[in-house]
Amino acid sequence: MSEDILQSLLSGCPVLESLLLDCNSGIGRLCIVSKTLRSIGFSAHRDNQTTVKFQELVIEDAPQLERLLPLDPRYGPPTVRVMQAPRLQVLGLLSDGISRLELGNSVFQEMSAISSTTSMPMVKVLVLDSSGPNLDSVVGFIKCFPCLEKLYIISRPQKDVRNVPRYDSLDPVECLERHLKTVVIKNYYGKRPDVDFAKFFVLNAKVLKKMEFGALNNCNDKWLANQRRRLQLDSRASQGAQFKFRSADWSTFTGNKHTHDLWMSDPFDKSLCRCCTGI
Q1: Where in the numbering of this chain does the FBD domain appear (predicted)?
Q2: What average pLDDT does range 112-120 have in this prediction?
Q3: Cβ atoms 226, 194 nearer than 8 A
Q4: Cβ-contact 55, 89 below 8 angstroms
Q5: Structural domains in the chain (count)
């Protein structure tokens, strides 16, 4: 499908609200202009042997777009540009497979902020795949989303990462001060990089209500007591916050199946997922 054909298709569907562009190949660039789309899921073909690879997705003008869902960013497209999406509320999964991400005038290169001048106050849910996990990279992202309420971190642990959980009260992160209520960390080992990363949110998220850890171990009493001590839960910034650890398998959050489920305020929340709860 060419870019012109896609745009003709969108123009011919004046009430279309959700669009799934999965395993794209044979086209290098797709540009989206739609007055009605609320949800877009997209991915590149996983076969590296394809002649023309999907290189760039541009959201040129989508005034009703609420959700932008890269389904498996490890395979691309390597460039995603969001020019006009003023109602965007859910963004993710983002990873360094998207080597260049532009959100208005904010630019991220391989998950690191190059410039972050655009604020996106409508975004409430953010999902990041983070190698390390990398605290500086994640903080660079959340500064763009002052009203962020839910943060999912898909951790890819690395031993050589050092996270220093420093917070400058003279340069506050607005979502930590006023809005961030839920943090979910997947693939948590409880090693030093994990602990220092998570502790930053424990000590600085002032309205946090819930923090969940998908732990890659059996979460026995001794391990839990050690984690609570190292995370300094007794010194948490939000006294009402609850912390839940549970044993879990390795998680990637790729292949989200809820592009078209517009009734779900958060397509990554398993408690809302009918296929997960058996409803």
Answers
A1: 174-246
A2: 89
A3: no
A4: no
A5: 1
Q: In this structure, are residues 185 and 193 in contact, taking their beta carbons and an 8 Å threshold?
A: no
Whole-number Å distance between alpha carbons of 58 and 138: 23
Characterize 40-66 residue by residue with b for buried, 16 or more Cβ atoms within 10 angstroms of its Cβ, and e for exposed: bbbbbbeeeeeeebbebbbbeebeebb
Structural domain boundaries, residue 241? 119-268
Within a domain: residue 165? yes
When comparing pLDDT for 224 and 26, which is higher?
224
Does some domain include residue 111?
no
Q: Residue 167: give its domain's CATH number.
A: 3.80.10
Does residue 41 lie in a domain region? Answer: no
Q: How do residues 182-221 score in pLDDT, each as one tens digit? A: 999 999 999 999 999 999 999 999 999 999 999 998 899 9
Q: Quick check: 6 pLDDT over 90?
A: no
Q: How many C-alpha atoms does 6 have within 13 Å on its Cβ side? A: 18
Instruction: Please indicate, yes or no, if residue 166 is contained in any of the structural domains.
Output: yes
What span, in angstroms and rounded, lies between the C-alpha atoms of 81 and 78? 10
| Report field, pTM of the whole predicted structure over 0.70 | yes
